[in-house]
Records
---
Amino acid sequence: MPKAYSYLRFSRPEQAKGDSTRRQYEAAKRYAAENGLDLDDGLTFRDEGISAYQGKHLETGRLGDFLNEVKAGRVEPGSYLLVESLDRISRQSARKAQRILEDICEEGITVVTLIDGRKYDRAALDSDPMALILSLLTFLRAHEESATKAKRLKAAWANKLKNIAEKPFTSKAPHWLKLNKETAKFQVIEDRAARVREMFDLYLSGMGPSGIAKRYNQEGLAPWGRGQMWFESYIIKILANPAVYGVITPHKLEYDKSGKKKRVPLDPITGYYPVVVDEHTFLRAQELKTSKGVKGRRATVPLQNIFSGLGRCPVCDSAMVRVNKGKTFQYLACGAAKHGAKLCSYRSIPYYRLEGSFLEAVRAGLKIPVEQEKLKALEAELARAEANMECAVSQRRNLIEAIKVGALKEESITDTSYPQYVLTDIIEEGPVFREKWGPRTLRDEIEQLDEWVERDRKNIIKLRGQINLLRPAAVEARLKELEAAARAQTLDPQRFNAALQSICKKAVIEYDHSAVDLQFKHTDLVLRVPVTMWSGREGK
Ligand SMILES: [Zn+2]
């Protein structure tokens, strides 16, 4: 089995922190599993190499280190290197990264970009010019982004640095970054960045901003700003600050006709700050009511509702539908109320918090009820249907056998063997019905038996299906898939939704109880899953 290496794990061997790193790693694992590769976790860049490669690393990421491992024979030819996308590798020199990529492929390694499943290997780079161009463009874009960022920083700070002697400026850096005044670059304060990631993790797994503030105060974590302690409002500010994923929205001052000063937002600049939380995570957190969201193209994020086709209003049983407010706020609301029906009241439930806490509950394990009684009843019914069918089949066989040997004739009239329901109809409807049916022959009898066999056959299939669904093993298998979908590195809402649909009929969004009531296909028992829908400040 060829080996595969995760670039993420190779370049960041320290315990992966945060959802995004974990998900990226899960994607590598999934790719390896789907493509019959043996994912090797053991190989990381070598510690003694850190200082030696520092210079190189700045230009090429850990790609150069990986190449060295290949050259040293610690990575076998024919192995795979899995990276999320090429721009993760280098933000410095496109030309050099490109060359190292070629060198790695030249050594017989296949590089796979997980984001699009594209493979780069020797043959691809030789024969498919698009592969080369695409990878080059990716590198160039990454390089350009950081070059632009560097240029902007330079221009912006050059002026300020000139004035620094007479007017020391307060660094505009958010609290988890500091400005290195010599290089005019932002540096990450690692322990604080870790806290920022933690805030997002906690928030997305259902803890409200006030809960997070309380937790930090209890823990005795010193507040970052001027305050004496952690406040909910400050947590909200961080959760809503696009600077966590590197974006700044500069403003310029303008004067309107009456001479009033106003701040006009300009286009957001990406890559301005070092990224401490990935964009997806940030956007997921944006249902926060107090946040202003992100302006511009980056703000649109496709939402697929994991409860799609299942979510129900607890009051009127209408489907809960998606409602967008602004560009980053996603809500669920009763479809009837949304369309103005008077029968139901309009309540909007912040979607991402619901999603996050529901996924959390699934990951923690759902106790899906199994009805042993119902299972037994169905099994008894199945046994009866099977016996009936067997009986009809052998009766039919006997009749045909008897006709074949001449003991009976197809046209022979049988009076007594009308099925019970026909007799009932004849009694009720009298002669008219008798005419319709006419005298009953053995041929009719055989046709009747055929019908019964067919009816039993369908019934057996249906019962087997129901029993299969009820059997703990079958339910367990479906639950496993649901959990796997909840644990996936990158949530695939469709996959999760399909898994949920395989076991559930409905998911009632019980907003008054902060719970999702799952109604199953296999049982009438309902499972109440506690979730977080409201932060403290939204009330109910
Ligand atoms: Zn409703």
---
Amino acid sequence: MKILLFGANGQVGRACRDALQQPGWELIALARKQADFACPEQVTATVQRSRPDLVVNAAAYTDVEAAEKTPDMASMVNGECVGSMAAICAALEIPVIHLSTDFVFNGQGSRAYREEDPVSPINTYGASKLKGERLLRAVHPRYICLRTSWVFSAHPGNFLTTMLRLAAQRTTVSVVGDQVGCPTYAGDIATTIAELARRYEEFGDLPWGLYHCSSPEPCSRYEFARHIFSEAEAAGLLDPAPWVKKISSYQFPTLAARPPYSALDSSKLAEILGHPLPHWNRGIRKACQVLATREEPSATPSLLN
Ligand SMILES: NC(=O)c1ccc[n+]([C@@H]2O[C@H](COP(=O)([O-])OP(=O)(O)OC[C@H]3O[C@@H](n4cnc5c(N)ncnc54)[C@H](OP(=O)(O)O)[C@@H]3O)[C@@H](O)[C@H]2O)c1
């Protein structure tokens, strides 16, 4: 099976480069410079040229703050171009596995969000990702859209690596306690995508549609940080761990509003996989171990040039 992966240099993209490296599978892993979602013609031409059996899209404009200043670019990369990519895939009968976000919800819920719950994004990034979801659904009958949340890994530029960077500079780190969500390890998302790809290869079909894809057991950012520091201390990355001060979002103003409660109920996906995603604490341990040994999780194949 030939798989075309977009966004191969991101957290999930890198993890997919490992997880989709399997006997009998040919992986074409492309980063932004090879397939830029700001240029839909480039992306559609790539699909046409490669003729894969399956497309996995891990590319996205994920800078939530920057998206407020460049909404047109966020909308193009996360919205319009996803629609163009999906349209060419539909025409060529190539199924698509796409990723979306908990930020499509406004965060006013009181229980974990299910797939059928009403969406109402409160920032530009969330709105652009919702546009991508809708365009994908409108043009392609054979898609899997995995909404995930609070993605972390050993790769720089996420909550875990930011916390560890701050911890190396300070004795006290302030973290908001009034934002609740489901942290999810990039490696666990990639494993899920590989499981779905394997099933598609075997049966030539999948239960197409929208799924929530997060680790179980929501927590606050404050709790997430405390677990990160405790695992990092155990892995020898911090000596000692900093004191974590709980603050409110009001004390940490940001350009983009964040949903206060964006936990996802991923039981629909657990049902088709036969198991839930692992607890995020296991992912924190893995990421800390990777950082402690300063090695990548496995030999990562190089990108196609
Ligand atoms: N990160 C989270 O907390 C989070 C939460 C919920 C959902 N998600 C979703 O999960 C998916 C994977 O996210 P991630 O955490 O792996 O994000 P990431 O680490 O930021 O990776 C995104 C990748 O997309 C690439 N990209 C950005 N603009 C592009 C463009 N114009 N054309 C092509 N590629 C472009 C980036 O390229 P460069 O490396 O060149 O910048 C980056 O490698 C995304 O769909 C995201 O919306 C993420």
